[in-house]
Amino acid sequence: MKVYFSLEDFNKLDNAVVTTGTFDGVHIGHRKILEQLNRVAQNYNGESVLLTFNPHPRIVLQPDIDLKLINSQPEKIELLKSCGIDHLIIHPFTKEFSRTTSLNFVRNILVNTIGAKKLVIGYDHHFGRNREGSFEHLKEFGPVYGFDVEEISAEDVQNITVSSTKIRKALLEGDLKTANEFLGYSFPLGGQVIEGEKIGNTMGFPTANIVAEENYKILPADGVYAVEVHFPASPEKRFYGMCNIGMRPTFSGKFKTIETHIFNFNRNIYGEQIRLIFQDRLRGEEKFESLEKLKIQLQKDAVQARAFFGI
User: Fold this and answer.
1) Is residue 157 scored above 60 in pLDDT?
2) Rounded CA separation 293/299 (Å)
3) What are the start-end ranges of the E strands in 76-122?
4) Are 144 and 173 in contact (CB under 8 A)?
5) Quick one: pLDDT at residue 156?
6) Which candidate in 20, 114, 180, 311 could, as Cys together with 51 as Cys, close a disulfide (CB 3.0–4.6 Å)?
7) Average pLDDT for 13-20
């Protein structure tokens, strides 16, 4: 997969099969679109192209909503690469770009810049200024500008339409099972290990504290989770652990922390990048009356997490 960080970097194709959208989460609904995109490209002897944007358009157009995203940009690129598309264009989204009319978007960008001969779009897709463009508009533009258009129906899981919004809601509510089911993979969170207050050491549960790699990355609800721990610099290294996200009410914490106790691990990893893969929610965050009661609960958490992983 070739990656371009601007439309200006892209060379027009002779037979492009194109889809466009934000694709936050690259969830099972998105994958249905991309599978069809690749299938059509193969059938038409063309090349598959995904046009997406950074930052997310809602962050630019609605800055007051404090939107958190499922994927960091590196995660999104990695996930899209696994989908087998030929070209990924991540174009800068600005207020000026948002004023592009649906006609200009189709004519100047999809057709004249990318070379679209066929469009594959998701259910209820809108584009252009004020989201004025729709599937009906594309069907009208197609004969004029020489492309065909195909719409993909909504992807359902147990009769619930999958969407990035519903996945974000599930994560914020601590419903990790639903979030992972809709994603089609387990929710990841990467970051750099920093020094903490080392309180865990005093209870026999040293932790790796991380700062998330992107400040717009969504965090699951406060609580304790069973996680896989990956080291991107050393892919062969994979461990298991339990991660606490929250304010640490037992210690009257002033800010949210992400702390992971890694099982069977004893190495200084300050400054390293790690990735947590969230597999199961063990419990919500609690305030304990004493360090001893917290320690007892941590021991129970460890037993539960180890049982989940079978270690």
Assistant:
1) no
2) 10
3) 87-92, 116-121
4) no
5) 56
6) 20
7) 95
* CA-wise closest residue to 80 among 139, 113, 140, 38: 38
- pLDDT of 72 strictly over 90: yes
Using a cut of 0.70, tell me whether the model's pTM lies above it. yes
For residues 159 and 243, what is the distance between their CA atoms, to the nearest angstrom? 32
Over residues 78-107, the mean pLDDT reads 94
* Tokens 């717009």 -> residue: 216
Which helix (H) or strand (E) segment holds residue 208: the answer is: strand 208-212
CA dist., res. 121 & res. 64, Å (int): 29
C-alpha–C-alpha distance, residues 146 and 47, integer Å: 17
Residue 282: name the closest of 257, 261, 256 by CA: 261
- Round the average pLDDT of the chain to a whole number and report it: 90
Q: For residue 39, what are the CA distances in angstroms to 18, 96, 152?
A: 12, 34, 13
Going by their DSSP bridges, the two strands 160-161 and 156-157 should be labelled as antiparallel
- C-alpha distances (whole Å) from 111 to each of 12, 37, 116, 137, 243 are 9, 17, 5, 15, 48
Asked if the model's pLDDT at residue 122 lies above 80, the reply is no
pLDDT at 65 over 60: yes
